[in-house]
Design a protein that fits this description.
The protein is of the alpha+beta class and 424 residues long. Helix content is 31%, strand content 25%.
Amino acid sequence: MEQECIRLAPPPGLEAVEGGGVTSARGFRACGMHAGIRKNRNEFDLALVAADEPCAAAGMFTQNVFCSAPVIVSREHLDDVSYGMARAVLVNSGNANAATGSIGLEAARETASMAAEEIGCPEDEVLVASTGVIGVHLPIAPFEEHLPDAVGSLSVSGGHDAAAAIMTTDTFPKEYAVTYESEAEGFSGMRVTIGGMAKGSGMIMPNMATMISVLTTDAPLAPEDAYRALRKAVSASFNKVTVDSDTSTNDSCYLLASGKAVGAPTEPIEGAAFDEFTRALTHVCSTLARDLASDGEGATRLITVQVTGAADDADADTAARAVANSPLVKTAVFGHDANWGRIAMAIGKSGAAFRQEDVSIDIMGLAVCRKGLTVDFDEDEALRRFENPEIVLSVDLGAGEGAATVWTCDLTHDYVTINGDYRT
């Protein structure tokens, strides 16, 4: 079942770009096409995002030991420090190029080299990413045949096709952009745009990464500052998503910064202007992260788990993840069952420090538990609220000031169907 895209209004000072995405920032073009990696000719499977000139770049990657060849190669291209200079990001769907050994590494390097030759830049200025079936060798022929056309078709209007080309079991392309005018002292008149695309529907519980995401901005950033901003934004967004508690072998998140914003200085932004940018980037990442959760495989509901009153933020995160990852909680939401006992079970097993007699639980704003005990509530009203596309589960542990928010989705029959025959 296709889940609708549930968007929150941007915070004050930010303006959402209508139809915005990975090419909304100045200095970027993109394309997406069918290259023959996937069998279905109606499905795009090759995306290219390119900067007009070499620009600051940063990346964050999966911590899965069984990481893919593109992850290894892109880390190398970013000098093994996760930041540097780049010109393009090449992404394919339909094949993960993971668990493919030396042949897979050679394929990742060769595709980067081919793209670099067509674009006219060094090989190490092309970052690569793949998504799809694990353990299958990536064919080179589709890249040889279609990369010249891909480079030739790069355009500002190609962002949507690129977002479609990186999908696997996703039901809709995930893309978003915002713009803002700087209010930082010394940067008056600078208008910055941040946009991006992401994919992910299953095998999602990232660790210092997302599934696959390409973010672009025209803010002037030093490479190490791009990484600093990306790391902070990812920590508060993509790292707060779980669909099925599984971390992909291919998680990659890239940020490219062209420095071509209207009114931008020649030197990288710093101080208040950098903080302003990081907040805006976090909003873009959080919006895309919510899209990932709402489009979880087979999902019918986005679930937002809010934990407050924890001993510290780490404990809050631990408790929130336990709730979000609980199959019993997720199936209760699918069944429209306000079974708060499953939430209590999940926080109780999490390891977070609290006393059960201090706990309060709300489901969609309905008080269902106070001081660790049941509270009478209107079951019919609960059923009505379960019709909302977003279900909010709120827990107050009564143990301190720590807080965390994690996004997930319900667990449905379709999740089993999708994953039962994913490869065949």
